[in-house]
Write a structure and sequence with these properties.
45% helix; globular; two-stranded antiparallel ribbon; alpha/beta; TIM Barrel; 14 helices
Length: 327
């Protein structure tokens, strides 16, 4: 495993991490979840990502349960949570958002579900237009001072709001956001590479990036089914793919799929599996602290972990071919 500092902090996090979105507490049984965490730990992964909204809190409960069952040493791993969407299916106004009340309540809920005394990383899952940024920053600072959170950050915040949070922190001598969790893949690059570019230099911001395979599109496993889902007519046996079509971050689904097809063809020419190649591409960005992996079986996780080998195996000419394929 390769380890990287989380931005300008002193925290070393594994370059590849394991996330619970869409799998823990939903698709997977407890046994499979336990096997995944065990395989990740054995491979050197020390960062496990979660959120209050994943499976309405069940993802955190499962993750906390299997980590406790595996008896992982608390000083050997980092665990995250995120606050915004709430942990109940139909949240009341004070059960969601970034108000001081919900930020604190959500932290306590995550600590209970994950069975830990503190969160290593705590993210504001989305910006909240109904709450002043200063209120959220002060709530996070309180949790840091209480020892319930070590580092706090944002997820999918515009650069202007991140800058505002730093201004508030500096003015009032509060704990500042240390990291962002943005979507980043060959099909979603603008925010990480352009919008956030000044923030790395000015604030030393780290990133833990999600959806490196564009929700699986870069593996080639969906293809035309996604087009049908976008049109409201999911393919046989592919019910529920409309969320995937909505998640593709480009002008049209068809254009994104065309770029993905060119990428998978390029991967074949390079002799590499598409998924590890796409993950390795993300790791080439020096501003990426950790790439979050999602997996539904151990074999899939182990294949994705070979991205570290691909990173050193593919030469510069090969990476140029990858860039040209998705241009």
């Amino acid at each position: 495993m390769q380890y990287r500092r989380l931005g300008s902090t002193g925290l070393p996090v594994s370059a590849l991490s394991l996330g619970a979105w869409l799998t823990f507490g939903a698709q997977l049984g407890r046994g499979t979840a336990r096997d995944l965490v065990a395989a990740a730990w054995d491979a050197g992964i020390n960062l496990f990502d979660n959120a209050e909204g994943y499976a309405h809190g069940a993802a955190e409960e499962v993750m906390g349960d299997v980590i406790a069952d595996l008896r992982l040493p608390r000083d050997g791993y980092c665990v995250t949570s995120k606050v915004f969407f709430g942990s109940v299916e139909h949240p009341r106004p004070t059960q969601r958002g970034l108000s001081r009340k919900h930020v604190v309540d959500a932290c306590h809920g995550a600590l209970r579900r994950l069975r830990v005394d503190y969160l290593d990383l705590y993210f504001c899952h989305r910006p909240d237009p109904d709450v002043p940024v200063a209120e959220t920053v002060m709530a996070m600072d309180t949790l840091v001072r209480q020892g319930k959170v070590l580092h706090w950050g944002t997820s999918e915040w515009p650069a202007a709001l991140i800058r505002e949070a730093h201004d508030v922190s500096r003015k009032h001598h509060l704990a500042a956001p240390a990291m962002e969790q943005p979507q980043y893949s060959l099909l979603a690059r603008q925010r990480v590479e352009l919008e956030y570019a000044p923030l790395y230099r000015e604030y030393g911001m780290g990133t833990t990036t999600w959806s490196p395979l564009a929700s699986g599109v870069l593996t080639g496993k969906y293809d035309d089914a996604v087009v049908e889902a976008a049109a409201g007519t999911p393919a046989q046996g592919r019910d529920g793919l409309s969320w995937l079509a909505r998640s593709i971050p480009h002008a049209t689904v068809e254009e994104s799929l065309a770029r993905a097809r060119r990428f998978t063809a390029c991967a074949r020419e390079l002799g590499e599996a598409p998924a590890p190649l796409a993950l390795a591409w993300c790791l080439r960005n020096p501003h990426v602290s950790s790439v979050i992996l999602g997996a539904s079986r151990v074999g899939q996780l182990l294949e994705n972990l070979t991205a570290l080998d691909v990173l050193t195996r593919v030469e510069e000419a090969g990476w140029k071919r990858v860039e040209a394929a998705v241009a």
